[in-house]
Specification:
With 133 residues, the protein is an alpha+beta fold. It is 30% helix and 44% strand. The chain has a 6-stranded mixed sheet with strand order 2-1-6-5-4-3.
């Protein structure tokens, strides 16, 4: 039996950021994110649009914790420039228990997230994750 290839350092960096998010360790996430980061958040909800800069992203992630957001990785793979994460994202709070599969594509530079594009499988479920009205 052959040993699997070692995980790329950028994939490990993403896994570390996701674990830090789940544990609420925002300062640990900050160390893995470029100051000029941009996340492209799809959908038709109040949190949709581009999140630009590390301070804006930290506020966005804090808000996710407040709305019962959840993240579970199915698989993560990376290269020197990119990471792809196959995940399930959702939210559980009074009146809401929803999730969808999501593909996230990241651009990495020097071991830090620079940009993220998010592609949910079920846009209605994705929008419901953020519907806190």
């Amino acid at each position: 039996m052959t040993e699997p290839w070692p995980e790329h350092a950028n994939a490990t960096a993403y896994r570390n950021a996701a674990a830090a998010f789940r544990s609420g360790d925002i300062s640990r996430i900050r160390a893995l994110i470029d100051d000029e980061v941009v996340w492209h958040i799809p959908g038709d909800h109040p949190m949709a649009g581009d999140v630009t800069g590390v301070e804006a992203l930290m506020a966005f992630l804090t808000r996710l914790g407040e709305i019962g957001f959840s993240l579970h990785e199915h698989d993560v793979f990376g290269s020197d420039a990119h990471v792809c994460a196959l995940s399930e994202m959702g939210a559980t709070r009074p009146g809401t228990d929803v999730s969808t599969r999501v593909v996230s594509v990241f651009h990495f530079r020097e071991g830090r997230q620079v940009e993220r594009w998010i592609y949910p499988e079920d846009m209605a479920a994705w929008n419901a994750i953020f519907d806190v009205t």
